[in-house]
């Protein structure tokens, strides 16, 4: 492990629900300029063998409303200085798209917390949050990784 790196699996976990509501799916699809009709019209989704409209691929970023930053910081303890934080990357690994009408269970944890020497001096942190979403049967729907970079103090 690198300087200041946490061992994966040694952190706290936040469990939360993420309702996949038709209206919210449609609003999100509009917001991200998604034009596929399977995100808007039940008939179109069913023509393609889906039980209802499905959420666009990045829909689960709405978890920020279920687990606000302050709660995430308090319960998971990354203690980032957000005035120096940049969004690093976001990744999604799907088993299937979320379907309107279901309520997903999310489990969020810190997957990695690495400190390393910055190129311009000082120590930079790279923190990756992992959220695993499951359906009512407990089957995994998707796994999302959200990476933040905390720059060294000026």
Set out the fold topology:
Elements: E1 13-19, H1 22-31, H2 42-47, H3 69-76, E2 85-94, E3 103-117, E4 123-134, E5 140-150
Account of the protein in words:
With 154 residues, the chain is an alpha+beta fold. The chain has a domain at 13-20 and 56-150: Thiol Ester Dehydrase, Chain A (Roll). It has helices at 22-31, 42-47, 69-76; strands spanning 13-19, 85-94, 103-117, 123-134, 140-150. A five-stranded antiparallel beta sheet has the order 1-3-4-5-2, with helices on one face. The longest helix is centred in the N-terminal third of the chain and has 10 residues, at 22-31. It is elongated, with a radius of gyration of 18 Å. It starts with 12 loop residues before the first strand and ends with a strand. Residues 1-7 have low confidence and may be disordered.
Largest sheet: 5 strands, antiparallel
Number of helices: 3
Which strand-content bin applies to the residues? 35-45%
Q: If strands are numbered along the chain, what order do they take across the biggest sheet?
A: 1-3-4-5-2
CATH structural fold name of the domain at 13-20 and 56-150: Thiol Ester Dehydrase, Chain A
Order of helices and strands: EHHHEEEE
Using the CA coordinates, give the radius of gyration.
18 Å
Coarse morphology: elongated
Name the CATH class of the domain at 13-20 and 56-150. Alpha Beta
Reported CATH architecture of the domain at 13-20 and 56-150:
Roll
Distance between the termini: 26 Å
Summarize the structure.
Helices cover 16% and strands 36% of the residues.
């Amino acid at each position: 492990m690198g300087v200041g790196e946490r061992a994966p699996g040694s952190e706290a976990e936040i469990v939360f629900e993420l309702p996949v509501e038709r209206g919210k799916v449609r609003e999100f699809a509009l917001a991200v300029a998604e034009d596929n009709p399977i995100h808007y019209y039940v008939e179109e989704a069913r023509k393609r063998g889906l039980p209802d409209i499905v959420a666009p691929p990045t829909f689960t970023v709405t978890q920020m409303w279920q687990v606000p930053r302050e709660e995430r910081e308090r319960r998971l303890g990354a203690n980032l200085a957000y005035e120096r934080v940049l969004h690093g990357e976001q990744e999604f690994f799907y088993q299937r798209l979320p379907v309107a009408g279901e309520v997903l269970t999310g489990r969020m944890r810190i997957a990695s917390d690495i400190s390393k020497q910055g190129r311009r001096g000082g120590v930079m942190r790279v923190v990756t949050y992992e959220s695993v979403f499951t359906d009512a049967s407990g089957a995994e729907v998707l796994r999302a990784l959200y990476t933040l970079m905390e720059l060294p103090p000026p």
